[in-house]
Design goal:
The complex is a heterodimer. Chain A is mainly α. In chain A, 73% of the residues lie in helices and 1% in strands. Chain A has a 3-stranded antiparallel beta sheet with strand order 1-3-2. The mean pLDDT of chain A is 85.
Chain lengths: 603, 88
């Protein structure tokens, strides 16, 4: 069979693909030397990579339920790790995280710890057990473990709220990149982004998404690491930045001491375009309270273990053992990018603020900076701004403002790298946002088609009809997401953090206790999911509308409130209602040992 | 105690050890972020807390998961609960 052969040949297939992509980069570099315009290079990079993903999506089309929902459960460990890493690292990780670290330093690095530490919870508490369960979706586990349509339905609600919050941010990111690279208005670019996302997932479901995500991981990791290594060598900071930037980190601290953090007046700040920020926090010193740091990290970790698009990647491995190992590989591939983000933030900041470097702009005259090419480009894109607040004619640290996205997207240009690298970074950002959006849209539409349509509304539906419903829902959800993304309610990083809090509020304890506490029952789980989600949301609304909050819990960490309510209500309600029946207890026992058939196959 | 109960007890103990290590490097050390930052231990020359947030803790999590997977496989083998061909 061709498919079996394809699985055996994966290293070769993706090896050739990676080689081909590197050749493409070199060809573009040659074309740039030959005088190809920057605009055309950007278009080539984005269009070429998106076409490849669409081609993979088309080749992976399927009419089988197993292939559509869980890629036939035959994705090998390491490749599933790559696919999960792409699924996981969104526009927020790729485009926004280094920016967050650049502006806020230590306080934002809680995201690095939280978004990696969560995988320890995934590996030890959940993934292998859910794999043994043999479900197609996360609500499938909740619905079967606890029994009853109400539990299933509640899980679908939580899943939809969390994933939808997340996916609008990702469609927004694809729209932003497509509008810059292809030079079209944002309102249209959002739908171009959506079309590319749907091309990958519509025909082949999880199978297509898996193989495009592996391809997208390869593009995004090359696009992130190449500039970091290149800029580091160019600045003379060392050929392996991760181990060699200590002097640069110290130099930034020295410069910060020299310039000082001058506070701008409110009237001055009012002239700065919306969304841009200046450097107001020290780069490497501990500038957040332990609780602010830890609460954010805890929310991101518990959220990681509750987000359905990550969990469902571990349903696709051939066995329980490979699911466990696959979590390790996922985190390894994520680690490659995450450990580079602070290095990129360091290099970017040093290039800009060190007056002894040719790229440094602090201390230059305002007129001089305004004449720089890249400054004009990014200023036009509303991502950079300078203003002579104190009227002395030179640019001070507090007079320079930049958008969070610009740190990743503009740094290659600022550091004087050829434009081909900027095109590559745009393609990488597009890959990151698309792969996550695909995973999320698929998670929502699978839950609606499998859990709501097939399991609750029409259990007798034939395979063909189920898959048609799944695809129609996929398109509808994509359009709904794009429409809301076009409204731009919340920034990319903010929406993503909210999604984690929503997921943690409603799903963390019902999932974990489903495996680790036999006494947990359906009324308890329903109470845990609904009360958790409602209390978390209520707290968010309260804080957003001017409430003072309590215990230092902010709108970014409201999941702590939701999860606490969820845990208490789940335990209390479970204990005052009847224990689960013997069949359910047997089911939990079966989940706990890797051998034997999956729990759902036994039924 | 039945074979299955023993297996689960070992599995649970492994979970507690794993979560304890996880707790130390994701939460525990950051209670002392400011104190650690002043320390003279400077991996690759970076300030200690800074290094843990951008490399140290992250790398420890990767190693921890592979170690956990290996140990769990041993426990499964010991009780004959490992998967066999054709199980799935």
């Amino acid at each position: 069979m061709i498919k079996g052969k394809f699985i055996d040949n994966l290293p070769k297939v993706y090896g050739i693909y990676t080689g081909g992509f590197l050749v493409f980069i070199i060809l573009m570099a040659i074309a740039e030397q030959a005088g190809m315009s920057a605009k055309l290079i950007g278009i080539f990079f984005v269009a070429f990579t998106v076409l490849i993903y669409a081609l993979i999506g088309w080749l992976s089309r399927t009419l089988q339920v197993d292939a559509y929902y869980v890629a036939g459960r035959q994705v090998p460990t390491v490749f599933n790790g790559m696919a999960t890493a792409a699924d996981w690292m969104s526009g927020a990780s790729f485009v926004a995280m280094a920016g967050g670290i650049y502006f806020k330093g230590y306080g934002y690095m809680a995201l690095l710890v939280g978004w990696t530490g969560g995988y320890v919870l995934v590996a030890s508490l959940l993934a292998p057990y859910l794999r043994k369960f043999g479900c197609y979706t996360v609500p499938d586990f909740i619905g079967t473990r606890y029994g009853g349509n109400l539990a299933r339905f509640s899980a679908v609600i939580v899943l939809t709220v969390a994933s939808f919050t997340y996916v609008t941010a990702q469609i927004n990111a694809t729209g932003t990149i497509a509008s810059v690279a292809l030079d079209i208005p944002f309102g249209i670019a959002v739908y171009v982004g959506l079309a590319s996302i749907l091309m990958c997932s519509m025909l082949g479901g999880m199978r297509a998404v898996t193989w495009t995500q592996v391809a997208q991981y390869i593009v995004l990791i090359i696009a992130y690491l190449l500039p970091v290594f290149w800029i580091s060598s160019k600045l003379g900071a060392g050929f392996f930045p991760h181990f060699m930037l200590a002097d640069e980190v110290a130099r930034i601290a020295e410069l910060e001491g020299q310039f000082g953090f001058v506070k701008n007046s409110a009237a001055d700040l009012a002239t700065v375009p919306k969304g841009l920020a200046g450097i107001t926090k020290a780069h490497s010193s501990v500038n957040a309270t332990p609780w602010a740091f830890i609460s954010l990290a805890v929310c991101m970790m518990a959220g990681t273990a509750s987000l359905p698009h990550v969990m469902m990647r571990y349903f696709t491995t051939p066995s329980v053992r490979t699911a466990r190992r696959s979590v390790g590989w996922s985190l390894f591939f994520i680690f490659l990018l995450y450990s580079s983000a602070p290095m990129l933030a360091t290099l970017s900041k040093l290039s800009l603020i060190d007056p002894t470097l040719p790229t440094g702009i602090i201390g230059k005259t305002i007129a001089e900076v305004q004449a720089i090419d890249w400054y004009q480009n990014w200023n036009q894109a509303n991502l950079m701004f300078i203003s002579d607040f104190n009227g002395n004619g030179t640019l001070e640290l507090n007079e320079f403002f930049m958008g969070g996205k610009a740190v990743v997207l503009a740094t290659p240009e600022i550091a004087g790298l050829p434009y081909v690298i900027s095109g590559l970074v745009a393609a990488g950002g597009m890959a990151a946002a698309m792969s996550t959006a695909d995973g999320l849209v698929l998670a929502i539409s699978n839950a609606l088609s499998h859990d709501i349509y097939y399991k609750i509304i029409n259990p007798k539906a034939e395979t063909a009809k189920r898959l048609i419903v799944a695809r129609v829902l996929l398109v509808l959800i994509g359009f709904a997401g794009a429409t809301i993304a076009a409204l731009e309610i919340q920034g990319i990083l903010g929406s993503v953090i909210w999604a984690f809090d929503f997921a943690m509020s409603g799903l963390f304890f019902p999932l974990v206790l489903g495996v680790w506490w036999k006494r947990a029952n359906a009324p308890g789980a329903v109470a845990g999911m609904l009360l958790g989600l409602i209390s978390g949301t209520a707290y968010l609304i309260w804080v957003r509308s001017g409430g003072s909050g309590f215990l230092g819990i902010t709108q970014l960490t409201f999941g702590i409130v939701g999860a606490a309510v969820s845990l208490v209500s789940m335990v209390v309600v479970s204990l005052i209602t009847a224990a689960p029946d013997a069949a359910t207890q047997k089911m939990v026992d079966d989940v706990r040992i890797p051998s034997g058939k999956t729990v759902l196959a036994q039924k | 105690m039945s074979k299955q109960e023993q297996h689960w007890e070992k599995t649970r103990n492994l979970l507690f050890i794993t979560l304890a290590i996880w707790f130390v490097f994701s939460i525990g050390i950051f209670l002392f972020g400011a104190e650690m930052q002043e320390s003279n231990i400077r991996p690759f020359g970076y300030p200690l807390t800074y290094w843990f947030t951008c490399q140290g803790s992250l790398a420890i999590f990767v190693i921890l998961i592979f170690w956990f997977a290996g140990r769990q496989e041993k426990i499964d083998d010991e009780f004959g609960f490992s998967e066999r061909e054709g199980d799935q």
